[in-house]
Amino acid sequence: MAAERVDRIERWAGPAAGVIAAVVTMTGLAMSDIAGPDAISPQASATTIARVLAENKDRLQLGTSVLMIGLFFMVWFLVHLQTRLNPKGTTRWMASVASAGGLITVTLMALVVAYVRATVETSFSGSDVVIPKAIVVYDWNYWRV
What we know:
- This protein has helices at residues 2-31, 46-55, 57-85, 93-121, 130-142.
- It is an all-alpha fold.
- The chain is elongated, with a radius of gyration of 20 Å.
């Protein structure tokens, strides 16, 4: 009886984790966009960029926290996918490829979180306002497609 219940929960919890991961991750990415609604331009002065990032610090930190929750559900979904694509006693290459691709994606998203957190934490005013400007220019050149 208990085994059937666990089996039934596992059957719907994995796909639900995938849906939750997609929604929460996209929400976190939208919230943690450095440019955000203020659309910081690399041509703006370093002081202006530092000020705008400081004003949006709470939104950016909340966005990265939401993104980390989404990544947790993504890993949960990947574990579910691994068990579905690779049944007990078999070895299939598709399960390995899907797991590796998913884990690479999770790793890159975690790097985005670290990048945004570093940007927010360096957005202070003072003599080192060049650091936020350099990060925004990097964001503009390499993250905007």
